[in-house]
Amino acid sequence: MNDRSDLARRRLPPCRRWLRLMRAGALLGAVPLLAGCAAGPDYVPPAPPPDTGFLPSPAAFPPAGRGDGTQHTQTGAAVPERWWSAFASPQLDDTVAQAIAGSPTLDTARATLAQAQQAILAARGGLFPQADIAASGERARTSGGGAAHAVGNLLTVGPTVSYDLDLFGRVRRQVEQQTALAESQRDALAAVYLALTGNTVTQALTAASAREQMAAVDDIVAVDRHNVELVRIEREVGKASDSDVLAARSQLASDLALAPPLAQQLSAAEDALAILVGQTPARWQAPRFDFGTIALPLDIPVSLPSAWVQARPDIRAAQAQLHAASAAIGVATAQLYPDVTLSASWTQAASAMGPLFESANRLWSVAAALTAPMFHGGTLKAQQREAIDAFDAQLGTYRQTVLTAFGQVADTLRALEHDADALAAQREALDTAKASLALEQESYRVGIASLVDVLQAQRLYAQARVGYARAKGQRYVDTAQLYVAMGGDAHAWTQRDAGQGEPAAGAGRDSLRPDAGRARGEDR
């Protein structure tokens, strides 16, 4: 099914020989055989990608520096359920649980899935006989053929039953299409869950990073204030000049300016967490996240691509949409062929209520009707070609979704490699700046270095502390993003959450097998 011509050739493979029987007039003999065929191609899922990894060479994370830990990838390992527990933070676990329980976005996705599941039931109704009951009453004047006319009443009541044999699988393909669309909605729910949990973890880590950077700035500001006071005292005794005082104050003001952007980053992260858990920022207080109580996962699972495509909800949703587009070809193809309907009625008719239900006034009928398209101005063929084109478009969308997802995983793996390099460099810069500051302070104390030298060393140390905290936070965030890029535990969670609301047995992934509609047709 890689091109349109292939799909067109396969639009009715099991039914052609039975059509010859119909053309020969052997309709009754062909009906039982036709009842098992369905027009259009049977869906075949795209082949999974080869297990050659996500990068040209395996990701290698160098040591990030003293006390910062070295991360490793576990190739072929599946992402565990509640993957955020790898950060070993009870506060984080509780916040994610609140987000899952209170998110309006999840409620919306659940309702949309329930709507799609009801559409399956509505489509399945066409596989069964349709029964109605009708009652009517009329008064009419009839002609007796001469000058006399009769005026009388006619009352009728009774059931009618009709049954579409669905010889060419139009209804079964509609059921297949709606089932695939419902599966797409299930995967959309999984995508919402994955985004919700991933964003919650990311915002919590962002808050921890901002708080650690703010702590570094606060320590530096405290040192700056001490230096301002020290220089003021030395000026009074003639050991410092006015320019030294101004330089110390300038350093303090410069470092104070680092705090407001970080405070805003922290506030924005905590406000975002409130929204994610389904509360307003005024009514919900975020926990105090900091890296002192959050562990960095060192062993990170990286699934094989063949298993990964079944874990990513966006890829699963694109595949379900592809299945729905395939079934739509069958629906459009079935419109090109005859439709046979059986019907029966049982009617009680009388001129008055009294004798209405007497056996003498009982009427019944049994009928079979065949409707075959003759001329529709090319509409039906155009609809079939439209369905094939829609399938081709969806196939391209599926391929692009897979490529984009591959790129996301590769980018995140590379980011973690670079994070380790950056953190190691920042650790070295921090250690060097700290040693340099201590040396300059001692040199200033014994009169070798100037105050300007001390202030410059302090500035370098401040920049190193903030840079180290920022690099550390980015490493945590990118670790969480890799879990998300691998699909997290979205599929497993959705199976538990949405499985309770399935409309009937067979509406899940198993019912998407190409022979599922045929089996239902034989059992009806």
TrEMBL record:
Keywords: Lipoprotein, Membrane, Palmitate, Signal, Transmembrane, Transmembrane beta strand. Residues 495-524 are annotated as: Disordered. Residues 510-524 have a biased composition (Basic and acidic residues). It holds the Pfam family OEP. GO terms for molecular function: efflux transmembrane transporter activity. Residues 1-35 form the signal peptide. GO terms for cellular component: plasma membrane. This is RND transporter. It comes from Burkholderia cepacia.
